Amino acid sequence: MWKFVKSALKKETWIQCDDCKQICFWGRSNVGKSSLLNALVNQKISYVSKQPGRTQFINYFQEEDRFIVDLPGYGYAQLSKEKIEEMNNWINAFLSQDKSPKTVFLLIDSRTGITKIDEEKINFLRSINLPIHLIYTKIDKLNQREKSALVKKHNEYLSSKLLDDSTHSFLISSTNKIGINELVDFIENNIFN
């Protein structure tokens, strides 16, 4: 059973472990991170809010030697510009300096696809050599034509080298449980194995 361990931001509060495995979930504010985390572990571990920018700390959830790390969303928060910049600096430091083994799942709203700020985050993650996978959320909001367009656009990103063959992608609906089992299987077999 997963349990909340702590909230952190500054380096001295991070959970440091060489022999544990961390999966980090990151994405724009209101992309559906909390809903996904709850669906992924089949229990309510994360507070779901309609208000963007609710997660303002690095939140750790643990089951044995495995950690889920919920990172604050980017792009919007009802905070001062200085506070947002400070938070972003700590997240970037956590991702680039924390030595605990980690894989990042970047959540993308399927209705908008990869935005400019998402591209910046992908480039940042690639520059620090972290394994990255994409989760297109809220897939239930798209009709078949829109889903096809999303897949086509994703394939263009593969061709343009923004993404590479090691980047897996998932089409997910936390509400309707679409793609959840495939994501769980991938995590269990490729990261938490």
From TrEMBL:
GO terms for biological process: division septum assembly. Residues 19-193 form the EngB-type G domain. Its cofactor is Mg(2+). GO terms for molecular function: GTP binding; metal ion binding. Keywords: Cell cycle, Cell division, GTP-binding, Magnesium, Metal-binding, Nucleotide-binding, Septation. InterPro entries: G_ENGB_dom (IPR030393), GTP-bd (IPR006073), GTP-bd_ribosome_bio_YsxC (IPR019987), P-loop_NTPase (IPR027417). It comes from the Bacteria. Pfam families: MMR_HSR1. Necessary for normal cell division and for the maintenance of normal septation. Belongs to the TRAFAC class TrmE-Era-EngA-EngB-Septin-like GTPase superfamily. EngB GTPase family. This is Probable GTP-binding protein EngB. It comes from Mycoplasmopsis bovis CQ-W70.
